[in-house]
Amino acid sequence: MSLRQFEYALAVAEAGSVTAAAERLHVAQPSVSQQIRALERELGVTLFARTPAGLVPTVVGRAFLQDAEVAVRAARRARATARAGADELVGELVVAVQMGLGTRQLPGALAALRRRFPRLEVTVFEEPDPVEMERLARRGALDVALMDGPCEEGLYDGHHLGDEEFVVVLGAGHRQLAAERVQLSELAREPWIRFDRGSALDGVLEKVVQDNGLSPTTVARVSQTATAVRWAAHGLGVTLVPASAVPPGHEHLTRRVFPVVAQSVVAAVRPGAGRVEAALLDFLRQEKWDSTAEIELKAG
């Protein structure tokens, strides 16, 4: 088995066909087909099933691809380390962010990282489900993750960056905009815009509901914080989001709440991480994590 075969198999799984995978890899289609067949012969299993929708990984194939992805990422990191010069490093960094955290802070830190390592390839994605985030971490698919709590011991090294306070977003003309801080009990009868079930953000609201004896009416569920804020601004309902996740131009519709709702923000870094991860952690620490004061100034 070779890393090239692993990369070809991963490309086929992602693209759903040999033809599309070959186009992505910039190689001839027969080369991809031959490598996949050779890999299946060596393993003695069928990795892909042919369906009307295209090539779909089999049960055995899915298990194999999980480990193949880990191996490919490890190889890329090894190549990057070997080819690193005094002031230059190439390779790929994979960053996962729990949805809603670091919306304002992460772009600045990543921009500084790219200036420091201009040839570095950075992949960033938001993950709403904390269970999926943990699964990806266990597979070794992440280099750095931003999450709201401590990491499992030995899995990643956790570094506390700060605390992210949540704010309520109200529609224009809402009576509670007259208050500097909104009592959560005052929102008991409000319709709420919530997030996907099982997401970390909806977990925060569930705890708020339980701790404050609320019985909210859910009028909508959304997947993105920006969508929740914009819908709340139009009067569909109220919502609760991290302060840094409020899109510019909507600060005047936000208010801090009492009791305070906050999350700690932790940067989870792979043990034994290299210069890139250490540099990103340093840039993240330089960002301002308590953003509610800035929002209050704009709201005022």
What is the compact description of this entry?
The protein has helices at 3-15, 18-25, 29-43, 59-83, 105-116, 130-138, 200-212, 225-233, 275-286, 292-299; strands spanning 48-51, 54-57, 91-98, 120-127, 144-147, 157-169, 181-183, 191-195, 217-222, 239-242, 254-258, 262-269. The chain is an alpha/beta fold. Among the domains are: 1-83, Winged helix-like DNA-binding domain superfamily/Winged helix DNA-binding domain (Arc Repressor Mutant, subunit A); 164-262, D-Maltodextrin-Binding Protein, domain 2, CATH 3.40.190.10.
Summarize the structure in words.
This protein is an alpha/beta fold and 300 residues long. Among the domains are: 1-83, Winged helix-like DNA-binding domain superfamily/Winged helix DNA-binding domain (Arc Repressor Mutant, subunit A, Orthogonal Bundle); 164-262, Periplasmic binding protein-like II (D-Maltodextrin-Binding Protein, domain 2, 3-Layer(aba) Sandwich), CATH 3.40.190. It is 41% helix and 24% strand. The protein has ten helices and twelve strands. It has helices at residues 3-15, 18-25, 29-43, 59-83, 105-116, 130-138, 200-212, 225-233, 275-286, 292-299; strands at 48-51, 54-57, 91-98, 120-127, 144-147, 157-169, 181-183, 191-195, 217-222, 239-242, 254-258, 262-269. Strands 3, 4, 5, 6, 7, 10, 11 and 12 form an eight-stranded mixed β-sheet that branches. A two-stranded antiparallel sheet has the order 1-2. The chain has a two-stranded parallel sheet with strand order 8-9. The mean pLDDT is 84.
